[in-house]
Amino acid sequence: MAGILRAWVAVLVHPRRFFRDGVAPGDQAPGLLFAIFVALVYQSLQFAVSPATIPTIEGGPVASAVVALLVIALFVAPALLHLTAAIQTALLIPLLSERAGVSETVQVIAYATAPCAFAAVPIPKLLTAGFEIPGIRAVCAAYGAVLLVIGISEVHQTSVPKAILASFVPAGVIFGYAFRGFEAFSTTVSVLATALT
């Protein structure tokens, strides 16, 4: 756990250095554990903030939440991570003749999710004149996408423009859809537009 927390702080504060020194060839396990940790924190906070989002199964809300978190940890997070890494690798092939391996790509995507651990935390209504604005989620998703670009650029030793081009679809899958960044951004813009009119 201490290693995960150290990695979480390092990737948020010094991303270039972290991706340069913290991603090891052929060792996906730390990245996978990191992604599972982020997904569990995110979903646990989501359940705490919005209990209505807990799936209904036998045994009540606590048992339902525990089962949902187990499914996320054992199946959803690993599957989504590896699917996105496959997409990312396919997009890198035509852009880079020399690149790092799939294992490093898995780790980059995993560590780029760091900001999204707290994406489910809402902005308090007292700060937004009573409106519910998912602005923190939008910021977390945007920062995650930036970290993905930085990580791809550092680990695969390519330019930022090429990293942006290669990361556009994977960032959309992970940060736009899985962490609901697109929805958060759209809602935030809508609520702010309404508040200003």
TrEMBL record:
Instruction: Show the stretches that span the lipid bilayer.
Output: 32-54, 66-93, 105-123, 135-153, 159-179
Gene Ontology cellular component list = membrane
Q: Does the keyword S-adenosyl-L-methionine apply?
A: no
Domain Yip1 residue range list: 10-175
Bilayer topology annotation: Multi-pass membrane protein
The organism sits in which domain of life? Answer: Archaea
Family annotation (InterPro entries):
Yip1_dom
User: Does the keyword section mention 4Fe-4S?
Assistant: no
Question: What subcellular compartments does it reside in?
Answer: Membrane
The alphabetical list of record keywords is: Membrane, Transmembrane, Transmembrane helix
Q: What is this protein called?
A: Yip1 domain-containing protein
